[in-house]
Design a protein that fits this description.
The complex is a heterodimer. By secondary structure, chain A is of the alpha/beta class. Chain A has twelve helices and 14 strands. Chain B contains 24 helices and eleven strands. In chain B, the strands form three sheets. A four-stranded antiparallel β-sheet of chain B has the order 5-4-6-7. The chains are: A alpha/beta, B alpha+beta.
């Protein structure tokens, strides 16, 4: 399901929490919404879910508005940063509720996931640990078979093994059912390995929105050592957009045709060199600096 | 796809029902105790109850009334907990992320509420239907059915109003406050205004002695929970019920509208609409200012400066309390803007308040605009009664349309209104209550506690005593429907009561009283009035179809031969009037009656005795007089009077100056 956000504003009194956000998310992909605490991610996610009505602009799922649209909402599910369960509810009780609310509920999937995560379906959910409650929320959400899943800080509280299991499950549904996932996080590294596209939100504004495969196909990191440092035309020649020099070792980010880089580098007789893919942090560092922001000021972890 | 457009969502209904189920169980248990069990226990003890009809009318109605009160509390509790889903960010976000329209959610709230209120009441009704066969008193199907329908409707209206208030706040505690405000703010505000005004001004008819009408009754009688509960107990008003049902329907429509407009992002704010909060805080601060200011003004009586200080301190205290309640914390955050708005509003209010009540208390209608008048004064024109226009009395009862009497009343009223006595003076009471029926049908009530004691003012009051007014205020003389009477009671101040019951006896007494009335009223009006005010009164008990037993007490003529004969048949008249217990009995021949009775009302016994040199009777002379009285030789036109000390009046320092009329009684003898 394609998600199209156009010129969305959302204010709390005089404070504008979301400012003129435009975003398009391709069906069957996972989008990471990154930003520090207070950046406006949760407000934006709740606006996406139709919990909040945009002050202006529109949130469209496959061309249909979601606010007060039950047909649309039955295909979109939202997991809050602190998963909510009714008082004294067990997983089975919550499943009974979800079963009545979400028409695409899969009992088979629910039973599979319970076995997979080894959760007691008759245990009071509010008595469980934060991580187990989050697992329960994933079980319920995935069993509801949504076409779009909105996740607010989804991996917070999960141990690394469960975190990876959850990521795998999400990727399965993305691949198997063409599910679209939008996940917000303040942890850049956490989203790196699963997101197809990412955006950065800061003070309510979307500063950056890119397809990661596109970035990774056009950017790389070059680490190279020389007997004698080359002239400036070297950097121009290889297409370096950012460089750091320590002694005779140069590290630079190269933009452009990265297949041709090795050929260009060897012309300068380096002692050794290594061409590496960019990490998400390095991409942001480079991109944000171009926009005049220090990434460390935007994303802390 | 399920429930996309339907207002019925069984999953949500199950959920909301589960959330509040145990409250309904609790209500059912309390209801079982309050009605079927209590009735059964009462029925089991019925061997001790002599009057079945009274039991039926009072006990059953009272228990049903108590049950309805419990039902209203339940409806409010149910609404608060059902609407609690919107008070917490996590559940609010969860519920509003579900594929359910807001309209459906609100419909579920109503459906669950109505189900949980209706089922227990029907359950209790079914129990009553069976229980009625084992009760020793009569409990009809009709009564049970009426109770069931009426209770359900009342609870539903309460629930609708309580749900409605939930849209103005996001906190459970404030929701409860708003429900109380919705139901009782108009009553509390008006009561505080009237009470404060009555403390500052004389003339405010807070509780009027005439006709039972006053400034508070209209608001009290139309305040929903009070009206709803008392209506169950008294007569059913279809008009009021229809009006409130219509209000309920309108409120439902507004609630849907408000929910559609509700913005979830403000879930953490105490109030949904800041404008509502400002308006309520201003009104409630003023209410608190009036209450606290009045209390301070009462505790610290003083001049106008003290009054102003009292109200200013009342405003400060009230503002702090109100902010604590609305902010749900003792550590309040004071905003200069709200302080200024509230202070300016209070100043404007007090300006209007003073001007309005000043105009109210100084108003005296033009005599030509008055159709008829009712007066009660402690000194003249007496008519102390609990009468509230029951059908048993004729239309002229207490209503005097004599032009001269109206002119005299307006004149006396003018003295009262122009009196410089504006506030409570402990120990000084000379009441003057008046009710005008104007030519246009409207009513004007004024009630003064401090009628001026100037000669001119008292003379104006004296003019109100007339044979014509005596007739309009006489209880027996104005009975219209004799057949409804079940008892006539003749009572003396000493507490002795002579009962006349049985249709024949009551008819005979009433006819005799009416036929001999003119003779008994021909003599001194003063003697008759003083007896009515201080010595003797009458009461009638009656009921007719659909009504429970009711009572009216009022004036009677002690000198009427029917009264003298009836009392004498039961006990010696001297014992009835407690002359036999009096320590001092005096005899006197009245010559200048106007001056004599004026002095009797306004002089102390010491002054009075020194002026008139009363003859104190010796024991044997006292016995002779008692024999004369026992023989029925009372008279208002002989000029011979007996003045005897009130055996139940205990002198203390403060009352040494009390006028004779309060320490002694006077009767005329042949």
């Amino acid at each position: 399901m394609k998600v199209n956000v156009r010129n969305v504003d959302k204010s709390f009194g005089a404070k504008k929490a979301v400012k003129n956000v435009n975003l398009v998310i391709t069906p069957g992909t996972m989008h990471g919404l990154l930003g520090s605490n207070g950046a406006g991610k949760t407000t934006f996610m709740k606006t996406l879910m139709g919990i909040y009505k945009p002050d202006s602009g529109e949130v469209m799922f496959d061309g249909r508005n979601i606010y007060e649209n039950t047909g649309m909402k039955s295909e979109v599910i939202f997991i809050q940063d602190i998963p909510f369960f009714f008082a004294s509810a067990t997983l089975n009780k919550m499943a009974e509720f979800y079963r009545g609310i979400y028409p695409r509920w899969s009992e088979k999937r629910f039973q599979q996931l319970i076995r997979h995560f080894k959760l007691n379906p008759n245990q009071n959910l509010n008595a469980l640990s934060k991580g187990m409650r989050r697992q329960a929320s994933f079980i319920l959400a995935i069993s509801s078979r949504p076409k779009v899943m909105l996740l607010d800080e989804p991996f917070d509280g999960l141990d690394p093994i469960i975190r990876q299991q959850v990521k795998n499950l999400l990727l399965q549904d993305i691949a198997g059912h063409n599910m679209t996932v939008i996940a917000s996080s303040h942890n850049l590294r956490e989203m790196e390995d699963i997101c197809d596209s990412v955006s950065i939100m800061h003070h309510g504004e979307l500063l950056f929105n890119r397809d990661l495969s596109e970035i990774k196909g056009s950017h790389c990191k070059l680490q190279i050592a020389f007997n004698k440092l080359p002239e400036d035309d070297f950097f121009e020649d290889v297409g370096a957009v950012h460089k750091t020099v320590r002694g005779r070792i140069i590290t630079c980010i190269i933009k452009g045709d990265i297949l041709d880089v090795e050929k260009k580098v060897t012309k300068y007789n380096p002692l050794m060199y290594d061409i590496l893919p960019l990490t998400l942090e390095e991409i942001f560092t480079y991109e944000m600096r171009e926009k005049g922001y220090e990434i460390s000021n935007i994303i802390v972890e | 796809m399920k429930y996309l457009t339907s207002l019925w969502n069984s999953t949500l209904i199950r959920h909301f029902t589960g959330q509040t189920f145990w409250i309904a169980v609790l209500y059912t248990v309390i209801s079982l105790v309050a009605l079927p069990l209590s009735l059964w226990v009462a029925s089991s003890n019925m061997g001790n109850v002599e009057n079945m009809t009274d039991f039926e009318n009072n006990m059953v109605q009272t228990l049903m009334q108590v049950n309805l009160f419990i039902g209203i509390i339940f409806a409010v509790t149910l609404a608060i907990f059902t609407m609690n889903f919107k008070n917490s960010e996590s559940i609010s976000d969860f519920i509003h992320s579900l594929p359910v329209r807001r309209g459906s959610i609100l419909s579920v709230v109503y459906i669950v509420g109505i189900l949980l209120m209706t089922l227990p009441v029907i359950f209790i009704s079914i129990i009553l239907m069976f229980e009625r066969y084992v009760l020793v008193f009569d409990l009809s199907f009709g009564e049970i059915f009426f109770w069931m329908i009426y209770t359900i409707i009342t609870m539903i209206i309460t629930y609708i109003l309580a749900v409605f208030t939930g849209f103005f706040t996001n906190k459970l505690f404030i929701h409860l406050q708003l429900i109380v405000i919705l139901f009782f703010l108009p009553l509390a505000m008006w009561t505080a205004m009237v009470s404060t005004a009555s403390m500052i001004y004389d003339g405010v008819a807070v509780y009027s002695s005439v006709r039972g009408d006053d400034l508070l009754s209209p608001i009290i009688n139309n305040t929903f929970p009070i009206f709803a509960i008392s209506q169950n107990f008294d007569n059913f008003s279809l008009v009021k019920s229809v009006v409130w049902a219509a209000v309920g329907i309108v409120i439902i429509a507004i609630s849907y509208f408000l929910y559609m407009q509700r913005r979830n992002e403000y879930v953490n704010s105490n109030f949904t609409y800041s404008s509502v909060r400002y308006v309520l805080s201003v009104i409630i601060t003023i209410l608190g200012m009036l209450i606290l200011g009045s209390v301070l003004g009462y505790v610290l009586p003083g001049n106008d400066v003290v009054k102003v200080i009292s109200f200013v301190l009342g405003w400060v205290g009230s503002y702090i309390i109100m902010e604590m309640l609305f902010q749900s914390t003792a550590k309040i955050n004071i905003k200069l803007k709200t302080v200024i708005i509230s202070a300016i509003s209070a100043v404007i209010f007090m300006g209007v308040f003073y001007a309005g009540w000043n105009s109210y208390t100084s108003y005296v209608p033009a005599a030509e605009d008055v159709d008829s008048v009712m007066v009660y004064s402690s000194d003249a024109g007496s008519s102390y009664t609990n009468f509230e226009k029951q059908e048993i009395m004729n239309d002229d009862y207490l209503t005097n349309d004599d032009r001269e009497f109206i002119n005299d009343t307006v004149e006396a009223h003018q003295f009262a209104a122009e009196s410089s006595i504006e506030e409570e003076i402990p120990g000084y009471y000379r009441t003057f209550d008046v009710a005008y029926k104007m030519n246009d049908g409207s009513m004007v009530y004024r009630s003064f506690n401090h009628y001026p004691d100037s000669d001119e003012a008292l003379q104006a009051l004296e003019q109100l005593d007339s044979i014509q007014n005596l007739r309009t205020t006489d209880l027996i003389l104005n009975i219209e429907e004799h057949e409804w009477m079940t008892n006539i009671m003749l009572s003396s101040f000493a507490g002795d009561t002579v009962y006349i019951n049985g249709e024949d006896d009551m008819n005979r007494f009433t006819n005799d009283y009416k036929s001999t009335y003119q003779n008994s009223a021909d003599g001194s009006l003063e003697l008759t009035n003083l007896a009515s005010q201080n010595l003797f009164n009458m009461e009638i008990e009656y009921h007719h179809a659909g009504n429970q037993r009711e009572y009216i007490y009022g004036n009677g003529n002690l000198y009427n031969s029917a009264v003298i004969e009836t009392v004498s048949e039961e006990m010696p008249l001297s014992e009835f009037l407690a002359i036999d217990e009096a320590e001092e009995v005096y005899e006197y021949e009245v010559i200048n009656s106007d001056v004599f009775y004026y002095d009797f009302k306004n002089s102390s016994m010491e002054e009075f005795n020194s002026t008139y040199d009363l003859k104190l009777l010796e024991p044997d002379e006292k016995e002779d007089i008692e024999e004369e009285i026992d023989a029925g030789n009372l008279s208002t036109d002989s000029g011979r009077v007996i003045i005897f000390s009130n055996p139940y009046h205990y002198l203390d320092d403060a009352s040494n100056d009390s006028s004779v009329q309060y320490t002694h009684f006077i009767i005329g003898v042949e």
